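Box S1 | Example of a co-folding query
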Amino acid sequence: MEKEQKEFYEKLESKGVSRRAFMKYCTFVTTTLGLSSSFVPKVAEVFAAPKKRPPVVWLHFGECTGCSEAMLRSTYPYPDDLVLEILSVEYHETIMAAAGQQAEDNLHAAVKKYKDKFVCVVEGAIATKDNGIYGRIGGRTFLEIAREVVPKAAAVIAIGNCATFGGIQAAKPNPGGYKGVSDAVGVQPVNLPGCPYNPINLVGTVVNYILMGKVPALDAYGRPLFAYGKTIHDQCPRRSHFELGEFVTEFGSEEAALGYCLYEMGCKGPETYNNCPVAKYNDGTNWPVEAGHPCIGCSEPGFWDNMTPFFEPL
Ligand code: FSX
Ligand code: SF4
Ligand code: F3S
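Box S1 (continued) | Returned holo structure for FE3-S4 cluster
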């Protein structure tokens, strides 16, 4: 164990990441999970000396790959080790070297080898109309692949609004009959919606799984409460300006203060559950509302139909 930890810290240093910066990241993961600071060393241990790295089969269906991009563009500590330190990714179309038949063979081999042991991460929605002919990879429909692979997993994590609730593919009129994983295959995953989802919530879910031996507590839509337990609005830094009282003091007029809160521009924060104001994106750089754009409700079921028009007030 000690040897593993030593090697881990040496590797971090060789990549220019100090132990202090790493501990800061572990504190961030711990806070995201809603755990007390006494858990920080335990979280650090999950990365530094992983007891078990669950094998992962990562499937892509109908989507823009923004969710994988959100993970790969995370620069801290460095992408290959951020998520990949705690997961053993056996199959992932975007980052694997194999292509064509070799990639297909890799998928079959991984599913066979790790049956009932692997974590299946699903990215993208699944076409279900006319036996799923509107979405294919390697001559097989998304639906066939999902039905074959998903039920063999020990746990399923659906990332992004597409895999959880169908995303843009499922927007009306939805000619391909696109659905999220639970509706298409009948298996309830841990749902991590968002367009894209936030990679910190995948890290949090996996760390929770490794530390506690179980998936985190979920809401009625299968979303972990640690990340989706509160609305955007309840955590929003523009919130104080939403409420009467602080208007005039800070901005001089009600009009100016209303311009600061994005409600009138159509912000869906009051009806959207996610941790963007705290977790932020791109390693804590920013998130939509702070950057000046109203929340469009991307972590809610059917947001393309239910949250539009995006720029009209709720
Ligand atoms: Fe969907 Fe993710 Fe939006 Fe894109 O994979 S949630 S379209 S950011 O990439 O699935
Ligand atoms: Fe609420 Fe949106 Fe205004 Fe923030 S910007 S206070 S989330 S309505
Ligand atoms: Fe999505 Fe709203 Fe967050 S649009 S990224 S849930 S601020």
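Residues 25 and 76 are 8 Å apart (CA to CA). The first helix runs from residue 2 to 14.
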